[in-house]
Amino acid sequence: MNKLVIGAIFFINLAVLLTFWWLGSGYFLTAGTATLLIALGRLAGLLAEFTIMLQLILISRVPFVEKTYGFDKLNRLHRRVGYSFGASILIHPTLLILGYAKLNDLSLVRQLLDFITNWEDVLKAVIGLSILLIVVFLSLPTIRKMFKYETWHASHLFMYVAIFFFFSHQVNTADVSGGVAFYYWYIVNFTVFGLLVLYRFLHPFILYHKHKFTVLKVVEETHDVTSVYITGKNMADFKYDAGQYLHVSFFTKKLWQPHPFSLSVAQNGAYIRLSIKAVGDYTSLTHKLNPGTKVLLEGPFGRFTEKVAKKDKYLFIAGGIGITPIRSMIEYLSPKKKDMILLYANKTAKDIAFKDELQKLPARHVDILSIEPESGFEKGYIDEEKIKRLSPDFIDRDIYVCGPPPMTDSILLILKKIGVPASQIHFEKFAY
Question: What predicted TM-score, i.e. pTM, was given to this entire model?
Answer without folding.
Answer: 0.85
